[in-house]
Structures are given as C-alpha cells and as structure tokens.
Amino acid sequence: MLVILESFFVQIMFVFGVVILCGLFISFCNKCLYDACGDAAFGLVRFTGYIGTPVHELSHALMCILFGHTVTKIKLVNSDKRSRTLGYVEHTYYKTNLYHQIGNYFIGVAPILAGGAVVLLFVWFFVPDMLSDMTGAVRGLAEIDSVPGRLAEVWHILFDKANFLNIRYWLALVFSVTVVIHMEISQSDFRSGLRGLSVLAVMLAVTDLILGFLFPTALTVFTGACVRIGVGCLMFLLLPSVVSAIVGLFSLAILALRAMFGKRARAAATSHHRANGRKKPRSK
Fold first, then answer.
1. C-alpha to C-alpha distance for 175 and 277, rounded to whole angstroms
2. Within the chain, what is the greatest distance between any pair of CA atoms?
3. What is the 3-state secondary structure (H, E, C) of the chain?
4. Which single residue of 35, 161, 203, 214 has CA 20 to 30 Å from 71?
5. What are the domain boundaries of the chain?
6. How confident is the model over 176-195, as pLDDT tens digits?
7. Partners of residue 91 on adjacent β-strands
C-alpha cells in the first residue's frame, strides 16, 4: 500500500504539480510587478493586454470547445476603460458529465500552456538559433536526475553575452513579457481548475489501486511515464518561467530601491520636523 501511495504522490506532482507550480510562480512574479508599478500597474497590464489578453482568453475558449463546454460569451479585449476586466470567457457545462468536469482543470491552466507555446513561438521567430541550441540541450531528457545539468546548459544559452548585443533577442524578450504578464492563474481559474483536478486525482487513485494490487510492474511503468510527462512540461514551461523570473527580479529591485529611498526620505522629513519644532531661545 505504501508503494501505491508513493506512486500516487509522484504522479500528482509531475503530471499536475509542475504546471500548477509554474503557474503560481508566474503569478507571484506578476504580483511583484504590480506592486512595483503601483497606481500605473493596471495601465501597464492594459497596454500589454492587446497581445497577452487574447492569448489568455482564446486558450480558455479552445479548452472549453475541446471538452464540450458551451461558450456563451467571449471578450478578447475589453475596450471599456471604466471596467477593470481585460477580457473574459463565459461558458456552461453539465456538472454530472465526467468529461466536462475533467475539462475544468485544463480550462483553468490553459493560459499557462498556451502562453508557454506563444513564448516559444516568439523565440523561434526572432532567435531561432538560440531555440535550436536550447532544444538540443534538453532533447532526449527523460530522467529527473538529469534535469539540473540540462537546466544549467539552457541557462548559459539564454544568457550568453552575444545575446545582449542582438536586437532580435531583446524583441523576443519584450514580446514574451507581454504574454507572460497575462499567463497568471486568476482566482476563478484556480477554483475551476481545482474542481477538475479533484476528479482527475480520484481517477488516478483508482487506477493506482488497480495496478498496484493486480499489476505491480505496470504501476512502476505508469509512474515512470508520469515522471517523463512532468519533465517534458518543465522543459516546455522553462522559457516563460525564466522570463517571469526576470520580471520578478526587476520588480523586486524596484521595490527595494523604493523602500530604501522612501525610508531615507521619511527619516529626513522626521529630522527636519524635529529641527523646526524646537523652541527658539528667548532674548533677554
């Protein structure tokens, strides 16, 4: 029974956990950006939304169609400046339909998967040689033990000094940022995905119980396949995660500078207030 539980945990973490953790990481980096921008955050999101929002909403709509949900209304870019909503997809489904329930997970995480694909497309269009080198570095990767070494290779390719002198590299980065900013998992996406994930987790647990008691060898093979899927997802989402990390580090640097200079400004203001608040000596 312990082997079955371990297998189930590994399968959940690699098949679903990799995508969810990458999505949460991107959401965290985006939150840092919004905090750094302050009142101008929504303006930045709206400006980049002309590229990022249609990718986000179309990914939802595509998954709705693939899993049999009925799309009742879709807005790729909301032009109403008074609204704080950039876009939306409204859909309905039958709660008693298992296939529809499973679809909720993929609808929820669709912006992460579609955003990752579009980022790869931008890199392929602007710097195809770099993408080819990165693909060669991770080609054939199937074991988790090999991931750190391959990630180091990809890191050196991404941040090679020659890239910083290439205008096409910077164009790929800028366009990728416009997509990554809109890849985050919203609260509604998370709730929808969680409903689908719970159904998938139950199905996975039942499968593991059957394989574990009747076909132990098949359970090992199945778990290995799940690990390979997870490693593939990690490599697929590596580029958008790195771009998001750059955004997050840049935002944290701005927040640190604002906090440092803000603290100095408050200290100077307090000192000035105290100096002016002292009573002047009276002349006799």
1. 53
2. 104
3. CHHHHHHHHHHHHHHHHHHHHHHHHHHHHHHHHHHHHHHHHHHHHHHHHHHHHHHHHHHHHHHHHHCCCEEEEEECCCCCCCCCCCCEEEEECCCCCHHHHHHHHHHHHHHHHHHHHHHHHHHHHHCHHHHHHHHHHHCCCCCHHHHHHHHHHHHHHHCCHHHHHCHHHHHHHHHHHHHHCCCCCCHHHHHHHHHHHHHHHHHHHHHHHHHHHHCHHHHHHHHHHHHHHHHHHHHHCHHHHHHHHHHHHHHHHHHHHHHHHHHHHHHHHHHHHHHHHCCCCCCC
4. 203
5. 2-126+162-264
6. 999 999 888 878 888 888 88
7. 71
- Report how far residue 139's alpha carbon sits from residue 163's, in angstroms, rounded to the nearest whole number: 22
Give the span between the Cα atoms of 75 and 52, in whole angstroms.
13
Q: State residue 169's pLDDT score.
A: 92
Q: Which residues, in sequence order, are bridge partners of residue 73?
A: 90
Q: What's the pLDDT score for residue 110?
A: 92
**77-101 pLDDT per residue, tens:** 776 666 667 888 889 999 889 999 9
| Cβ atoms of 42 and 36 closer than 8 Å | no
**Structure tokens given for 214:** 């009747």
pLDDT, tens only, 123-152: 999 999 988 888 877 776 555 566 677 777
∠ CA 53-54-55, rounded to 5°: 90
% of residues, the chain, pLDDT over 70: 87
Mention every residue, 6+ apart, whose C-beta is less than 8 A from residue 229. 14, 15
Place of tokens 């101008």: 40
131, two tokens: 């993408």
pTM above 0.85, yes or no: no
* Polymer length in residues for the chain: 284
